[in-house]
Give the backbone structure.
Amino acid sequence: MKKNIFVFLAIVFAAVSCKNDTQSLSADVEIPVSVQDVTLKSIEEFVNTSGTVYPKGDIELKSEITANYFLEKNPRTGKSWQLNDKVIAGDLIARLEDREYINSIKMETTRLNLDLTESELKKQESLYEKGGVTLNDLKTAEINNANAKTNLETANLQMAKTRIVAPIDGVIVDLPYYTQGTQVQTGSSIVKIMDYKTMYMDVQLPEKYISVIKPGQKVKLTNYTIPEDTIMGNVTQLSPAINPDTRTFKGYISVSNTNFLLRPGMFVKADIVTNHKDSVIVIPKSIILSRQRGKTVFIVDRGVAAERIIETGLENLTEVEVTKGLMKNERLVTSGFETLSNRSKVKIIK
């Protein structure tokens, strides 16, 4: 009997020792984690949308007469105008020559006639003051002078049709090819110019943001062709009406494109900044665990993980503001947190 008791006690002792060894072994396991210091930074809240950007100015110049075509040279390069050349308002792009058309304008005769009527008017005004002519004579001179001015203005407008001049600053986006001296017909396209130093886009915004989005708010725009660059814009106009079919309202965004990174017709992503804070605690959204007690993160304190229940404020797609639960300079666990529990031993790997 005593022998059996001794055997039983030995077994119990061995089991207890094994359990203690297991607990001791478990307690010594260190979970590898990565950490970063909690710092203060800025955070912005966005409303995401997308759309197509259009140039501020877009004009196509066509021939208004049938004449011989001559392409001019870019005064800044010394070469004939080409696609993608920048133009300044007033630059001569092409000449249209037709001697018969020019002769029909009678420009020199029209100028001389104006000079003659101006001299006659001055003479009649002087005589009228001295009583040498009637009021009817004076009025006739005034009418002749006014007609001469109109005729000269018309002649200048007709002559202007022989010169294709850029009416705006911009970039040549279309320049149909014609052999020098060949005849072009009335209505032929000569050049297309776009001013896209400033651009605009119209967007359709979800109804729920109608009280959130306001004119003047900043907009950050990106395109997949320029992933490293962000173009800045502003909300300029908002419609007060909701489209009953799409449950959206219309907005206009003005885009500053001084470096010409965006091109007319590009499809861009726009982040409308609706809220902004500086010098607050901001952490990645991806490290927050949703648990029964609330939103949870872990910090490392003296080699041990400490669970923190946090409260949050502003957030965007990747980051969130922490308003309660964390302090500056604490070491926040950014990877390896999935298997942590409060008071777990950890090993910082980076």
